[in-house]
UniProtKB/TrEMBL annotation:
Organism whose genome encodes this protein: Betta splendens
Keyword Nucleotide-binding: yes
UniProt gene name: rab38c
Protein name: Ras-related protein Rab
Superkingdom of the source species: Eukaryota
Record function comment: The small GTPases Rab are key regulators in vesicle trafficking.
Family the entry assigns: Belongs to the small GTPase superfamily. Rab family.
GO cellular component terms given for this protein: late endosome; lysosome; membrane; phagocytic vesicle; trans-Golgi network
Portion held of the full protein: 5 to 182 of 212
Length: 178
C-alpha cells in the first residue's frame, strides 16, 4: 500500500562544459561508482539514469545527459536541451579557458530551454579536478550570484568529492519549481 503512494519523478538534467573538464567522469562516478584515468571521448549523446529515494514518498529518476564531442563546436542542438529541467555546468580548475567558457554554456542553455513562464532552468556550477588545484571561493560566490547559478561545488570525480552534494543541490532547486 505504501509503495502505491510513492510519487515518481523523472528529471532530465544536462551535463555541459568544455571538452575534457570531466563531464563523463562525473556521471560515471555518480551513477556507476567508477573512475578511470583513461581518456575516452564520448560518442554521440549518452545518458545515464540515477535513481534516488529522495524521501519516503518520493523516488526521483535523474536522467543525466552527457555530450559527446559536440562540445568541441561550442553549442548544442535544441533537441539536446528539450525538456531539460536542470543543468550541471562543469569547468576544470586547472584550465582557465574552461572557466571562461562557462558563461557561453550558460547563455546557450538559457537561450534554448526555459521552464514555464520563461524561468531559467536551475544550474549548478561544478569546479572539477579539485584534487589538482584549489579554487577561489569568494570569486565563485559572486560569480554565481551575478550569473544566475543556484550554487557551486568544488568536485573531484577522481576522489569522489562533492558530486552527490552538487547533484542534491540541483535536485532541491528543481523540486522547488515542481
Ligand atoms: P569530458 O570530455 O568533459 O567528458 O571529460 P572526461 O570525463 O572524459 O575527462 C577528461 C580527463 O580528465 C580524463 O583523463 C579524466 O580521467 C580526467 N578527469 C576527470 N575528472 C577528474 C578529476 O576530478 N580529477 C582529475 N585529476 N582528473 C579528472
Ligand atoms: Mg565526455
Amino acid at each position: 500500500f505504501a509503495a502505491a503512494m510513492q510519487r515518481e519523478l523523472l528529471f532530465k538534467v544536462l551535463v555541459i562544459g568544455d571538452l575534457g573538464v570531466g563531464k563523463t567522469s562525473i556521471i560515471k562516478r555518480y551513477v556507476h561508482q567508477i573512475y578511470s584515468q583513461h581518456y575516452r571521448t564520448t560518442i554521440g549523446v549518452d545518458f545515464a539514469l540515477k535513481v534516488l529515494q529522495w524521501d519516503k514518498d518520493t523516488v526521483i529518476r535523474l536522467q543525466l545527459w552527457d555530450i559527446a564531442g559536440q562540445e568541441r563546436y561550442g553549442n548544442m542542438t535544441r533537441v539536446y536541451y528539450r525538456e531539460a529541467v536542470g543543468a550541471l555546468v562543469v569547468f576544470d580548475v586547472t584550465r582557465a579557458s574552461t572557466f571562461d567558457a562557462v558563461m557561453k554554456w550558460k547563455d546557450d542553455l538559457d537561450q534554448k530551454v526555459t521552464l514555464n513562464h520563461g524561468v531559467p532552468v536551475p544550474a549548478v556550477l561544478l569546479a572539477n579536478k579539485s584534487d589538482q588545484a584549489p579554487c577561489q571561493q569568494p570569486r565563485l560566490d559572486s560569480f554565481c550570484r551575478e550569473n544566475g547559478f543556484v550554487g557551486w561545488f568544488e568536485t573531484s570525480a577522481k576522489e569522489n568529492t562533492n558530486i552527490e552534494e552538487g547533484a542534491r543541490c540541483l535536485v532541491e532547486h528543481i523540486l522547488s519549481h515542481e
